[in-house]
């Protein structure tokens, strides 16, 4: 008898002693689960992440038209409530933060967002003519 209602089997394994009281037998607790959801990234999700773009690399990159002319700079990115990238906030004016003119451009209008942001058929003047975007919060 090993104590706590266990007996030793051949090979050093412990087994419940049939003569021991039922409450003395120790049972293994189930592994903890946080709200029954997997926490972290699965291997399959890691592969998807590896094919995406980091927001830190997209922010502050120059925006060009299809002619290769620089027409602005990505100031911010907006993620919609469904988790998709929806809008790029583009700075089309100013120098060193002075005279900033921000405009909101739906991401679907870009032909590329990385490694180079391309907004076809746009010019700096056309973007400056758009209503100024202002953050609400």
Overview of this structure, please?
The protein has about 140 residues and is α+β, with helices and mostly antiparallel strands. It folds into 2 domains: about 15-50, no CATH class; about 55-130, Roll (SH3 type barrels). The chain has helices at about 45-50, 55-60, 125-130; strands at about 5-10, 15, 60-65, 70-80, 85-90, 100-105, 115-120. The protein has a 5-stranded mixed sheet with strand order 6-5-4-3-7. A hairpin with a 5-residue loop joins β4 (about 70-80) and β5 (about 85-90). The longest helix has 8 residues, at about 45-50.
Largest sheet properties: 5 strands, mixed
Total separate domains: 2
CATH architecture of the largest domain: Roll
CATH topology of the largest domain: SH3 type barrels
Going by CATH, the homologous superfamily of the largest domain would be PRC-barrel domain
Succession of helices and strands: EEHHEEEEEH
Give the CATH level 1 class of the largest domain.
Mainly Beta
- What is the approximate shape? globular
- Overall mean pLDDT stands at 76
Structural class from helices and strands?
A: alpha+beta
Main sheet: which strands, in order across? 6-5-4-3-7
β content, as a range?
15-25%
How many distinct beta strands? 7
Which keywords apply here?
137 residues, alpha+beta, SH3 type barrels, 5-stranded mixed β-sheet, disordered N terminus
Write the SSE topology.
Blueprint: E1 6-8, E2 14-16, H1 43-50, H2 55-58, E3 62-64, E4 70-79, E5 85-91, E6 102-106, E7 117-118, H3 124-128
Parallel strand pairs: 3-7
Antiparallel strand pairs: 1-2, 3-4, 4-5, 5-6
């Amino acid at each position: 008898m090993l104590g706590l209602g266990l007996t030793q089997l051949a090979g050093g394994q412990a087994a419940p002693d049939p003569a021991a009281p039922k409450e003395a037998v120790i049972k293994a607790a189930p592994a903890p689960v946080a709200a029954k959801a997997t926490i972290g990234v699965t291997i399959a999700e890691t592969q998807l992440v590896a094919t995406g773009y980091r927001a830190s690399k997209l922010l502050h990159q120059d925006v060009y038209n299809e002619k290769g002319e620089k027409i602005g700079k990505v100031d911010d990115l907006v993620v919609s409530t469904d988790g998709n990238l929806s809008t790029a906030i583009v700075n089309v004016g100013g120098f060193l933060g002075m005279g900033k003119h921000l405009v909101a451009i739906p991401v679907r209008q870009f032909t590329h967002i990385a490694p180079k942001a391309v907004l076809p058929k746009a010019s700096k003047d056309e973007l400056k003519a758009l209503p100024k975007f202002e953050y609400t919060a």
